[in-house]
Amino acid sequence: MTFDMxxxxxxxxxxxxxxxxxxxxxxxxxxxxxxxxxAIALLANTLATAAILFxxxxxxxxxxxxxxxxAVTLVALLRRQLKRGDALIYVIAQLAGCAAGAVLAxxxxxxxxxxxxxxxxxxxxQMASESAATFALVGCILLTSHARPQATASAVALTIAAGxxxxxxxxxxxxxxxxxxxxxxxxxGIRMADVAGFVVAQLIGAGAALAAFNWLYxxxxxxxxxxxxxxxxxxxxxx
Length: 239
What we know:
Number of domains: 1
Structural class: mainly alpha
Largest sheet: none
Number of helices: 8
Number of strands: 0
Order of helices and strands: HHHHHHHH
CATH architecture: Up-down Bundle
CATH superfamily: Glycerol uptake facilitator protein
Shape: globular
CATH class: Mainly Alpha
Strand content: under 5%
Oligomer: single chain
Distance between the termini: 48 Å
Helix content: over 70%
């Protein structure tokens, strides 16, 4: 079934809203219940984020592809899976949804609805972490959707869960989520001054993942062509 752009954009906005609300809200809840133990708060944040990602992708992938992430949409555009106008609509929906999700999370915990993030996330290690995390996420999506599409939801959820713990930035890996977290002065927040660096790093990671995927499967395609050519040569020679 093919869905029209209104429904696809609505799916992207709704998915981004829920994802953002869960990322920020679970951070607030985790911090409140952890008694000052940041590791416990981060674990709660991780589990909630991975769980909702699995659900959202499984539920909405048939409608819009379940991007919820401008970096993923950019890769789809570069692979000619989306038209430019459609990609722009996706990104607008993702940004609006994530921003609305931040407001929703604040409302659910009786916090000021409009905030500015205050958590410093700067430095080379953080930028490198965002490139690495986005590379892992986009690479996971490209490879899994090519080899085992039915496993994409679980693979993405597990990749993000791991990213919370193996990167110093805790794996935002999403420009829209980064902006939403800059609108929240909570456990999951980020200073507005650090957003640009994160987004640039994320786009670099996404581009590197696309280049690696193209190289990998181009090598396989070249091998298949060579094998076919060799088979034709043997056939013509009567071997």
